[in-house]
Design a protein that fits this description.
The chain contains 15 helices and 30 strands. The chain has about 575 residues and is α/β, with parallel strands linked by helices. β5 and β6 form a beta hairpin. Strands 3-2-1-7-18 form a five-stranded parallel beta sheet. Strands 9-16-10-11-12 form a five-stranded parallel beta sheet, covered by helices on one side. Strands 21-22-25-24-23 form a five-stranded antiparallel beta sheet. The longest helix is centred in the C-terminal third of the chain and has 16 residues. It folds into four domains: about 140 residues, 3-Layer(bba) Sandwich (FAD/NAD(P)-binding domain), CATH 3.50.50.60; about 110 residues, FAD/NAD(P)-binding domain (3-Layer(bba) Sandwich), CATH 3.50.50.60; about 110 residues, FAD/NAD(P)-binding domain (3-Layer(bba) Sandwich), CATH 3.50.50; about 100 residues, Rhodanese-like domain (Oxidized Rhodanese, domain 1, 3-Layer(aba) Sandwich), CATH 3.40.250. Helices cover about 25% and strands about 25% of the residues.
Amino acid sequence: MSKKIIIVGGVAGGMSVAARLRRLDERAEILVLDRGRDVSFSNCALPFHLSGIIPDADSLVLMTPKVFATQYAIDARVRHEVVAINRVAKTVVVVNLETGDRWDEDYDFLVLSPGAVPLVPPIPGADSPHVFTVRDVVDIDRLKRHVDQEHVSDVVVVGGGYIGLEVAENLEMAGKRVTMVEMRDRVMMRLDSDIVQLLHRELHDRGVRLVLNDALAKIGPDTVTVASGATLPAQAVIMAVGVRPETTLAVESGLRIGSTGGIAVDSHYRTSDSSIYAVGDAIEVFNQLTHKPSRLAMAGPAQRQARAAADHICGMSQRQTGVIGSAVVRVFEQTAASTGLTEDECRAENMSFDKVYVIGSDMVGIMPEARPMHLKLLFEVPTGRVLGAQAVGPGNVEKRIDVIATLIMMGGTLEDMRDLELCYSPMYSTAKDVVNNAALVALNVLNKVISQVTVGDLRRLIVEEDAFIIDVREPNEYDFAHIKGAINIPMSQFRQRLDEIPTDRPVYCHCRIGQRSYNVVRALNQLGFPNAINIGGSFLGFCNHEYFTDQATGRESLVTKYNFA
């Protein structure tokens, strides 16, 4: 006997459930109901329409109801909203939003994939016609038509997450003056405060005005006011402050809601009603690293959840591995990617952890297009289990984070990461890839072979502790740019100048990226200087770390000149 499955929501999760169900059961009756205009559109690609990278908004729609009907025998209906669920009768109440018609539709299984709703703070002017959110093709088309008007020159993007960053980038590429307002101390909370400074620098240098530690207070016809009292010009305002799971149907029908506010599901993505499944942004997921429920609004996990739910409906099961939160975003010439836990999350979970910050090259350094790659690695102490990684650079950053994400999903340790056999060619990597090198540095720290601080610690050490800093680069490098107050004792000379190095206080050593200073510290530790400490990230990392805040606040720079090369 054939089954009837109703799916509420026709984007990534919902349509993936429908397609998988059809592959598993040719006789099943599959009905997809979505209140929007389109099904199966690329919501992750929406911002790229603003710059013209995707010139036609209609091309964001990947498949139409007609194609689903003719190719897959799936009945997908747009502008149809499910407004109620009768769990006892196993029916839903459907409203045709075009005609107003209303009727009951029965089901054997129901799948909820309603997604998430953009948050709009309750401030004066938030309902103005020049205020936008970005959720679907209709939204982005309406925004694009507005900003393309001649009088729209200044745009304020509220929120520095993935959507906010991509919208800001594409609007700047379209010739707009863009201001980003973020109430926290940084954009991209999936990056820690030290490594995210590379994105702050990139945004600043591309002309995007960053207003951090401030919140939107009021929206006027052509200006906005922030909590600090500043007024910013804005003929368009884009709200990208986050999303909340769309749980209205679940709540009203009495399904269990988890501690995070998402729909609670079991290992097969069944809700508290065994006939109702839920997938996508609206559900609560299991974090593999913290072993706690969390929320993760990302397309990749939604696709996997959809397949698992469809399999279970058809009598198949698969092991649920949980999520770790891997993501990537491009910000002009920089790519930022992360996986696993951040420092803030490790602290919130009271984990025993440590970190390293390394800079490598995305290819062999003598190659003309070789570029630096900043990578931060977090690991558990004393086990060496890899907990998270973040990387920023213009090269293939996402490849490295994908490798580490795979390792984390397999429960890997620093030793596993050290021994990874990765592809090598001078045009693609270095023989000792930055991934392997980060593991080696982390093992040195874990095993107390060497002591290290990172560039995020350096300003405090200089300003509050009057740290003794040795610059081990060559004199010409030091003369071009250096940390104020640092003593230049080059690697080529330090063995002859040991009497200049104090033995009664910590000595912090740096070079350009940390390799030469590591060698110097190893030698000093063996020559009677156990207080010698390496600075992870070194001078290149410190310049990137300090630059934006120096420029934005006017504070005194701690370097004689910034050097990003």
